[in-house]
Amino acid sequence: AQSVAQPEDQVNVAEGNPLTVKCTYSVSGNPYLFWYVQYPNRGLQFLLKYITGDNLVKGSYGFEAEFNKSQTSFHLKKPSALVSDSALYFCAVRRFRDQGGKLIFGQGTELSVKP
Amino acid sequence: GAGVSQSPSNKVTEKGKDVELRCDPISGHTALYWYRQSLGQGLEFLIYFQGNSAPDKSGLPSDRFSAERTGGSVSTLTIQRTQQEDSAVYLCASSLGSGSTDTQYFGPGTRLTVL
To answer: What confidence tens digit (pLDDT) does each residue in A30-75 have?
Structure first.
């Protein structure tokens, strides 16, 4: 069965510092991995995805994520956090060639960036 | 261009009543998904539509839940005889196709409260 784990319920970072939001996955076969962000009372906004190729994926708002197959991880990173990055972040996985496949989401990580 | 829209944004109903939630996908998107976001369960897949194919209903929690998609565009999620445990945010997403690499774009959600 496919699953996603986000081991931290909350991450606290000072503005200007680098941030990392962790994600590990379990899936048979090759995974397709996604990061979404949710601001209060809003839907999910797509940030980035890993399909194949370069393990470092760049996305919206200066975010990037690194795919590590040996560690089955897909951590979200940003070199310099902004207060406006404070939100709920979700990692999701889909299985290779899973036609019409639903996304399997992690439980979410609340990111808080303080001035 | 216009994103996924959902209506109503908020719905308060009494236990036992039926409710209908509406989703307008991005124009040209052939795949449409419904998810539910609740505190205890996180983000759960409910149902998926692709073109004229039979929907994947594997995530519907009970036979009180049903959905339809008319004309390959607008979708309605219906919950009959609502229960308090149905209280959640219902999110709709659409994607250009149903391939496993296709990105799902989410609407703002409908917050359902069952009293």
So the answer is: 889 999 999 987 889 999 999 888 899 999 999 999 999 999 999 9
Q: Does A39 touch chain B (CB under 8 A)?
A: no
Average pLDDT over chain A, rounded to an integer: 92
Domains and CATH numbers, chain A: 3-114 (2.60.40.10)
pLDDT of residue A41: 79
Total Cβ atoms within 10 A of residue B78: 13
Q: How far is B64 from chain A (nearest CA, A)?
A: 21
> Residue B104: which of A95, A97, A103 has the nearest Cβ?
A103
Three-state DSSP at B23 gives strand
Q: Tell me how long chain A is.
A: 115
Phi, psi of A61 (to 5 degrees): 60, 30
Which residues fall within 8 angstroms of residue B68, CB to CB, at 6 or more apart?
B75, B76, B78
Q: Which alpha helices (DSSP H) does B28-115 contain, by range?
A: none
Domains along chain B? 5-95 (2.60.40.10)
Report cis status (omega within 30 of 0) of the bond before B8.
yes
Q: Would you call B91 and A34 a contact, using CB atoms and an 8 Å cutoff?
A: no
The distance from CA B85 to its chain's CA centroid, rounded to whole angstroms, is 16
Three-class secondary structure of residue A52 per DSSP: coil
Q: Tokens in use for A22?
A: 């962790």
The residue type found at B43 is: L
Q: Is the Cβ pair B45, A102 closer than 8 Å?
A: yes
